[in-house]
Amino acid sequence: MKDLFKILILLISISGFAQQGITPFEQQAYDKAISVYHSLDYLVVEEDGNATSTEVKDYIFKVKQNVYVKTIELFDELLDTLPNTKLLNRIYYNKANIYKDKGDLDLAVWFYKKVLENPEFIYVEAENEDNYYRRQICIYLALIYMDKKEYLEAEKEIELAKSYKVQYSCGNSAMESSEELIALLKKCKERKKQ
Protein backbone atom coordinates (compact mmCIF):
# COMPACT_ATOMS: atom_id res chain seq x y z
CA MET A 1 0.00 0.00 0.00
CA LYS A 2 2.86 2.36 0.86
CA ASP A 3 4.47 1.72 -2.54
CA LEU A 4 1.18 2.34 -4.31
CA PHE A 5 0.92 5.71 -2.56
CA LYS A 6 4.48 6.64 -3.67
CA ILE A 7 3.69 5.67 -7.26
CA LEU A 8 0.50 7.72 -7.18
CA ILE A 9 2.37 10.79 -5.88
CA LEU A 10 5.04 10.34 -8.58
CA LEU A 11 2.43 10.08 -11.34
CA ILE A 12 0.60 13.16 -10.10
CA SER A 13 3.81 15.20 -10.01
CA ILE A 14 4.87 13.97 -13.46
CA SER A 15 1.48 14.87 -14.93
CA GLY A 16 1.79 18.34 -13.36
CA PHE A 17 5.11 18.88 -15.13
CA ALA A 18 3.66 17.53 -18.38
CA GLN A 19 0.76 19.99 -18.21
CA GLN A 20 3.26 22.82 -18.12
CA GLY A 21 5.44 21.12 -20.76
CA ILE A 22 8.21 20.59 -18.22
CA THR A 23 9.82 17.18 -17.99
CA PRO A 24 10.87 15.65 -14.67
CA PHE A 25 14.51 15.94 -15.83
CA GLU A 26 14.11 19.68 -16.43
CA GLN A 27 12.43 20.21 -13.08
CA GLN A 28 15.08 18.19 -11.22
CA ALA A 29 17.95 20.00 -12.91
CA TYR A 30 16.33 23.35 -12.16
CA ASP A 31 15.61 22.37 -8.55
CA LYS A 32 19.23 21.30 -8.09
CA ALA A 33 20.52 24.69 -9.27
CA ILE A 34 17.99 26.63 -7.22
CA SER A 35 18.77 24.64 -4.06
CA VAL A 36 22.46 25.48 -4.46
CA TYR A 37 21.55 29.16 -4.83
CA HIS A 38 19.23 29.09 -1.82
CA SER A 39 21.92 27.51 0.33
CA LEU A 40 23.03 31.14 0.77
CA ASP A 41 19.86 31.71 2.79
CA TYR A 42 21.55 29.81 5.62
CA LEU A 43 24.75 31.83 5.44
CA VAL A 44 23.88 34.56 7.91
CA VAL A 45 26.31 36.44 10.07
CA GLU A 46 24.78 37.65 13.29
CA GLU A 47 26.30 40.96 14.27
CA ASP A 48 25.74 41.25 18.00
CA GLY A 49 27.51 44.53 18.50
CA ASN A 50 30.96 43.01 17.95
CA ALA A 51 32.50 43.62 14.59
CA THR A 52 32.75 40.48 12.49
CA SER A 53 36.37 39.72 11.72
CA THR A 54 37.78 40.48 8.30
CA GLU A 55 38.69 36.81 7.88
CA VAL A 56 35.07 35.74 8.41
CA LYS A 57 33.79 38.39 5.99
CA ASP A 58 36.36 37.34 3.39
CA TYR A 59 35.40 33.70 3.84
CA ILE A 60 31.69 34.47 3.45
CA PHE A 61 32.41 36.54 0.34
CA LYS A 62 34.36 33.62 -1.21
CA VAL A 63 31.62 31.12 -0.35
CA LYS A 64 28.99 33.37 -1.93
CA GLN A 65 31.05 33.80 -5.09
CA ASN A 66 31.50 30.02 -5.35
CA VAL A 67 27.77 29.44 -4.89
CA TYR A 68 26.96 32.02 -7.58
CA VAL A 69 29.39 30.38 -10.00
CA LYS A 70 28.09 26.87 -9.30
CA THR A 71 24.45 27.91 -9.67
CA ILE A 72 25.12 29.63 -12.99
CA GLU A 73 27.05 26.55 -14.20
CA LEU A 74 24.08 24.31 -13.34
CA PHE A 75 21.65 26.63 -15.13
CA ASP A 76 23.97 26.77 -18.16
CA GLU A 77 24.23 22.97 -18.25
CA LEU A 78 20.44 22.74 -18.35
CA LEU A 79 20.25 25.37 -21.11
CA ASP A 80 23.00 23.60 -23.11
CA THR A 81 21.05 20.34 -22.87
CA LEU A 82 17.59 21.82 -23.45
CA PRO A 83 17.90 25.30 -25.00
CA ASN A 84 14.12 25.51 -25.59
CA THR A 85 13.09 24.58 -22.07
CA LYS A 86 9.84 26.00 -20.70
CA LEU A 87 11.94 27.01 -17.68
CA LEU A 88 13.93 29.56 -19.71
CA ASN A 89 12.28 32.63 -18.13
CA ARG A 90 12.62 31.14 -14.65
CA ILE A 91 16.31 30.45 -15.27
CA TYR A 92 16.93 33.92 -16.71
CA TYR A 93 15.07 35.51 -13.80
CA ASN A 94 17.25 33.69 -11.28
CA LYS A 95 20.44 34.36 -13.22
CA ALA A 96 19.53 38.07 -13.21
CA ASN A 97 19.05 37.92 -9.45
CA ILE A 98 22.44 36.23 -9.04
CA TYR A 99 24.21 38.83 -11.17
CA LYS A 100 22.43 41.58 -9.22
CA ASP A 101 23.61 40.01 -5.96
CA LYS A 102 27.15 39.75 -7.34
CA GLY A 103 27.10 43.39 -8.34
CA ASP A 104 27.36 42.62 -12.06
CA LEU A 105 24.55 45.00 -12.93
CA ASP A 106 24.99 45.01 -16.70
CA LEU A 107 24.44 41.25 -16.87
CA ALA A 108 21.55 41.51 -14.42
CA VAL A 109 19.89 44.10 -16.66
CA TRP A 110 20.47 41.92 -19.74
CA PHE A 111 18.81 38.87 -18.16
CA TYR A 112 15.93 40.87 -16.66
CA LYS A 113 15.27 42.41 -20.09
CA LYS A 114 15.29 38.97 -21.71
CA VAL A 115 12.58 37.83 -19.30
CA LEU A 116 10.43 40.89 -20.01
CA GLU A 117 10.83 40.37 -23.78
CA ASN A 118 9.73 36.73 -23.59
CA PRO A 119 5.95 36.23 -23.34
CA GLU A 120 6.32 32.80 -21.68
CA PHE A 121 5.28 32.64 -18.04
CA ILE A 122 8.01 32.97 -15.43
CA TYR A 123 6.77 30.71 -12.65
CA VAL A 124 3.08 29.92 -12.65
CA GLU A 125 0.89 29.80 -15.70
CA ALA A 126 -1.39 32.47 -14.29
CA GLU A 127 -1.44 36.06 -15.44
CA ASN A 128 -1.66 37.59 -11.95
CA GLU A 129 1.41 35.77 -10.62
CA ASP A 130 3.33 36.41 -13.81
CA ASN A 131 2.47 40.11 -13.64
CA TYR A 132 3.78 40.17 -10.07
CA TYR A 133 7.21 38.90 -11.18
CA ARG A 134 7.33 41.17 -14.23
CA ARG A 135 6.45 44.12 -12.02
CA GLN A 136 9.23 43.16 -9.58
CA ILE A 137 11.69 42.97 -12.47
CA CYS A 138 10.76 46.51 -13.51
CA ILE A 139 11.33 47.70 -9.94
CA TYR A 140 14.73 45.96 -9.81
CA LEU A 141 15.65 47.55 -13.15
CA ALA A 142 14.53 50.98 -11.95
CA LEU A 143 16.70 50.64 -8.84
CA ILE A 144 19.69 49.53 -10.92
CA TYR A 145 19.23 52.44 -13.32
CA MET A 146 18.92 54.87 -10.41
CA ASP A 147 22.21 53.55 -8.97
CA LYS A 148 23.79 54.09 -12.38
CA LYS A 149 22.27 57.61 -12.51
CA GLU A 150 20.26 56.70 -15.62
CA TYR A 151 17.09 58.36 -14.40
CA LEU A 152 15.13 58.41 -17.67
CA GLU A 153 15.55 54.64 -17.96
CA ALA A 154 14.52 54.27 -14.32
CA GLU A 155 11.37 56.31 -14.91
CA LYS A 156 10.50 54.15 -17.94
CA GLU A 157 10.79 51.01 -15.83
CA ILE A 158 8.62 52.46 -13.08
CA GLU A 159 5.94 53.36 -15.64
CA LEU A 160 6.20 49.87 -17.13
CA ALA A 161 5.84 48.38 -13.64
CA LYS A 162 2.54 50.24 -13.30
CA SER A 163 1.24 48.49 -16.42
CA TYR A 164 1.52 45.06 -14.81
CA LYS A 165 -1.74 44.80 -12.92
CA VAL A 166 -1.60 42.57 -9.88
CA GLN A 167 -4.57 41.61 -7.75
CA TYR A 168 -3.64 41.11 -4.15
CA SER A 169 -5.73 38.88 -1.95
CA CYS A 170 -4.83 40.21 1.46
CA GLY A 171 -4.99 43.44 3.36
CA ASN A 172 -3.46 46.64 2.07
CA SER A 173 -1.03 45.00 -0.36
CA ALA A 174 -2.47 46.70 -3.45
CA MET A 175 -2.29 50.11 -1.82
CA GLU A 176 1.21 49.47 -0.45
CA SER A 177 2.40 48.30 -3.86
CA SER A 178 1.00 51.40 -5.56
CA GLU A 179 2.54 53.63 -2.89
CA GLU A 180 5.88 51.87 -3.42
CA LEU A 181 5.87 52.81 -7.10
CA ILE A 182 4.86 56.40 -6.33
CA ALA A 183 7.65 56.71 -3.75
CA LEU A 184 10.17 55.18 -6.15
CA LEU A 185 9.19 57.59 -8.92
CA LYS A 186 9.44 60.53 -6.52
CA LYS A 187 12.88 59.37 -5.35
CA CYS A 188 13.99 59.04 -8.97
CA LYS A 189 12.85 62.57 -9.84
CA GLU A 190 14.55 64.00 -6.75
CA ARG A 191 17.83 62.32 -7.62
CA LYS A 192 17.54 63.54 -11.21
CA LYS A 193 17.40 67.15 -9.97
CA GLN A 194 20.62 66.80 -7.94
List strands and helices in order, with pairings:
Elements: H1 2-20, H2 24-38, H3 54-81, H4 88-102, H5 105-117, H6 127-147, H7 151-163, H8 173-193
Order of H and E elements: HHHHHHHH
- Sheet bearing the most strands, described? none
Q: Helical segment tally?
A: 8
Shape: globular
Helical fraction equals: over 70%
CA-atom Rg in angstroms: 20 Å
Rounded mean pLDDT score: 83
Strand segment tally: 0
Question: Would you tell me the structural class of the helices and strands?
Answer: mainly alpha
Strand content: under 5%
Instruction: Name the poorly predicted regions.
Output: 1-19
Distance between the termini: 70 Å
Would you kindly provide a written description of the structure presented here, covering whatever features stand out?
This protein is mainly alpha-helical and 194 residues long. 75% of the residues lie in helices and 0% in strands. The protein has eight helices and no strands. α3 runs antiparallel to α4 and α6 packs antiparallel against α7. The longest helix is centred in the middle third of the chain and has 28 residues. The radius of gyration is 20 Å and the shape is globular.
